[in-house]
Amino acid sequence: MNANEQLAQALRLAVDPPGGVSVHALRDLVADDDSRQWDIATAARHVGASPHTLRYYERIGLVTVPRNPAGHRVYDTPAIRRLVFLTRMRTSGMPISDLRQYIDLVDRGDVTIPDRLDLLLEHRDTLRAQIAQLQLALAATEYKIATYGGATQP
Amino acid sequence: MNANEQLAQALRLAVDPPGGVSVHALRDLVADDDSRQWDIATAARHVGASPHTLRYYERIGLVTVPRNPAGHRVYDTPAIRRLVFLTRMRTSGMPISDLRQYIDLVDRGDVTIPDRLDLLLEHRDTLRAQIAQLQLALAATEYKIATYGGATQP
DNA sequence: GTTTGTCTTCGAGCGCGCTCAAAGATCTAC
DNA sequence: GTAGATCTTTGAGCGCGCTCGAAGACAAAC
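ok -> structure tokens follow
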């Protein structure tokens, strides 16, 4: 295998990762069943964050959470759905400032739908660019792995 | 143009738009020509960082840079190659602590090659996981975009 | 009723990765 | 020779996104 072939192989591996995107998450977007209630610990576990983080998100206005008579947070389905959205967007690198902007638009009603769409389109571009970047880094890494033993330099 | 070249070409086209690291950089991994000299501003421009950042990387031991008689940094080819590697790994989300670990191994010579390989393999897994995450977020975003006008919630 | 745990609010602290400011030496152009 | 940009070092500061601690109310188990 010469250098070009190795390079091509690395690129191939980077662009065609084993195991594709799961459809699971898409189903989450559609599912719309319950009117369950969750305490903060359960909610946190469900969205993969800490209770601290959930309180933080509420503090900075990303989500509003009703209380029970004792003053404890009670997460309902809309709150959970929003949190799932928020954490996914965070995981994908959207800064909190953008999320606040988006949430503000949501809270201002349907009239802001075009603006929200713009934000989403922008985010889509960002995601695509990020994926491309990562695939490049992956290609470089695959290449380095494939050729190790040859060169010593980093 | 053979298959490999076409693949590289396709990747270049798919990856280049947002500016930043390009397929170019992969060639840097193979290329090994020059003994050019660069001042810090040029070096910074070349790797897509600020002079501040380059000095910072030197301070924390990620790279060693010779000086000219006046005490100014003179970046040589090995230094640049290492910086390109470092910035690519940073861009792909590798924490500086990992990079220091890796660089320490490199500086300790060939005996650490297996350890370095381990780090690279681990990073490859991280990259794959990240890409999968982003593709998921992208799918979710595409879905939201496609269905906008329907639902109002977040 | 008492322990033990989880909840509340509020403010402060932290780790990361830069980023900048200050004070001074040096290079570049005119 | 002089102005202005760029270089040096050192130490401090900053923005982000949490993360924690303290002090106290409430809940669940015995």
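Chain A touches chain B through 65 residues (CB under 8 Å).
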